[in-house]
């Protein structure tokens, strides 16, 4: 039986909630960066703590028990209460009315007319007493942090929709396939490069998400994974890999002759960026204001690719 709650209990409950929201252990692995055996141990330990079975997993798939469903619902209420308590202590502190936690993916600083800097500037002018913290994370980490209410709002390219999150369109970002000046492709004319030859090259992909926006004709066989644009760029600069980067991020290196886009007319694709917030949560004054400023500063993206449904 679960007595006093401690930090370990809260971590186990957050892990359990993530598994439920992902639809099972396998889907939760990437979000939590944990192996299946480790996830099983965490849920087993939590079941020992609460004194009953939370879920069933087997050939029929992942299913919550009646007690598991009730526990998930109670955990959501608990985490919401913790956030409300934190907000009230901030309000009573006197130094600040609110503390706004924001998140974004990396490499947006080089984007021309990015909506984030002017939105931050306007927000600071209108709400000077609200404290801001900006975190840089992977897209899957951002989604999880918003679900767990560790972040109030996040910006990124999310290639699916998760239940429990609201997605609002912001802008599109062009992606091109690049090689460095040390790669054999660099001095080759585009018309001499075939899709088969490109697909046979060593390729660095974004390990945090399936690249379902990548041109369908590319089928890379020799891949490694990286988890930030900086890491992808460093591997491309090694001269042994090719990889996709945002065009604005690679622009200066292209102009310096250090990178070149490979078949840009054929292999470029577009990522749709959204801002996400937690569904069913009352928007505090600061969050509601920042969201309004961010959305109003954006014109609707033209020709935005459709976002696939969650799986």
How is this fold's topology laid out?
Blueprint: H1 7-22, H2 25-32, H3 36-50, E1 55-56, E2 63-64, H4 66-93, E3 99-104, H5 116-126, E4 131-136, H6 139-147, E5 153-157, E6 165-180, H7 195-199, E7 202-206, E8 222-226, H8 229-237, E9 242-246, H9 247-255, E10 259-261, H10 264-267, E11 269-278, H11 285-296
Parallel strand pairs: 3-4, 3-5, 7-8, 7-9
Antiparallel strand pairs: 1-2, 5-11, 6-9, 6-10, 6-11
Helix pairs in contact: 1-2, 1-3, 5-11
Number of helices: 11
Proper CATH architecture of the largest domain: 3-Layer(aba) Sandwich
Helix proportion range: 40-55%
- Mean pLDDT, as a whole number? 87
What form results from the Cα inertia axes? Answer: flat
The computed structural class is: alpha/beta
Strands, total number? 11
| Poorly predicted residue ranges | 299-311
Biggest β-sheet strands, sense, barrel: 9 strands, mixed
Distance N to C terminus: 34 Å
Question: Overview of this structure, please?
Answer:
The chain is an alpha/beta fold and 311 residues long. The protein folds into 3 domains: 7-86, Arc Repressor Mutant, subunit A (Orthogonal Bundle); 96-170 and 278-296, D-Maltodextrin-Binding Protein, domain 2; 172-270, D-Maltodextrin-Binding Protein, domain 2. The chain is 41% helix and 21% strand. The chain has helices at 7-22, 25-32, 36-50, 66-93, 116-126, 139-147, 195-199, 229-237, 247-255, 264-267, 285-296, and strands at 55-56, 63-64, 99-104, 131-136, 153-157, 165-180, 202-206, 222-226, 242-246, 259-261, 269-278. The strands form 2 sheets. Strands 3, 4, 5, 6, 7, 8, 9, 10 and 11 form a 9-stranded mixed beta sheet that branches. Residues 299-311 have low confidence and may be disordered.
